[in-house]
Design brief:
Helix 1 crosses helix 7 and helix 6 packs antiparallel against helix 11. The protein is mainly alpha-helical. Helix content is 77%, strand content 0%. It comes from Stagnihabitans tardus.
């Protein structure tokens, strides 16, 4: 049987429907916030009956937490290069590149996270107090190792991470402002230059580059 004509398995149908729902939910939550979003709005955006949403996600909060978890896990994966790199140029540089690429590919997910945190994280405070805090402490220890080895200046690792997050996520959260000032959406070349500039400014600032 031709692969294209093969009937989809139930697990494949479920994966496709979940992906469709999550993409729609990202956009609706990014535009309306948790309070303004409704399951009906998300269903309309996904082009599915509202009952389908409740089949996969019992409540709006369940769906919201899944959207937040998805972008959070993508960000966590972006730091893997920093964990295995021997030097900060390679490790932090790859982390910046990954975070910039995520801002381009998942702007709505980043906006949902920003909206939630700016409103006191009423739904995901547990993420901040556990997973994110532990992750941050581990990365701080990694950066402190490079400082001890004389590979970067004796900067404050925590604030370096904050700067990386703020700068890279700015390209997602304030994409409209950037597009306006750029007289249009960033092109492939614009993104390449932006990523290179962010890397150079941050790496040179911490003394990783000569």
């Amino acid at each position: 049987m031709n692969e294209a004509a093969r009937p989809l398995k139930r697990t494949e149908i479920r994966q496709q429907n979940e992906a469709l729902i999550l993409k729609a939910a990202e956009k609706v939550f990014a535009e309306a916030g948790f309070g303004g979003a409704t399951m009906q709005l998300i269903a309309d955006m996904a082009g599915l009956p509202k009952a389908n949403l409740h089949y996969y996600f019992a409540t709006k909060e369940d769906l919201y937490r899944r959207v937040v978890q998805n972008i959070f896990e993508i960000w966590l994966e972006a730091a893997e290069a920093m964990d295995v790199a021997d030097d900060p140029v390679t490790g932090i540089g790859a982390y910046i590149e990954a975070k910039m690429a995520i801002s381009r590919a998942h702007p709505d997910g980043s906006k949902v996270w920003a909206y939630e945190v700016m409103h006191g994280a009423p739904v995901i405070q547990d993420y901040l107090e556990t997973t994110l805090r532990d992750w941050t402490n581990d990365r701080i220890a990694r950066i402190e190792g490079w400082i001890a080895a004389g590979k970067i200046k004796p900067i404050a690792p925590r604030h370096l991470l904050y700067m990386i997050w703020a700068t890279t996520q700015h390209y997602a959260d304030f994409g409209h402002q950037i597009a306006t000032l750029n007289r249009g959406p960033l092109s492939d070349e614009d993104w390449r230059r932006a990523t290179a500039a962010v890397k150079e400014i941050l790496l040179r600032g911490i003394g990783a580059l000569d």
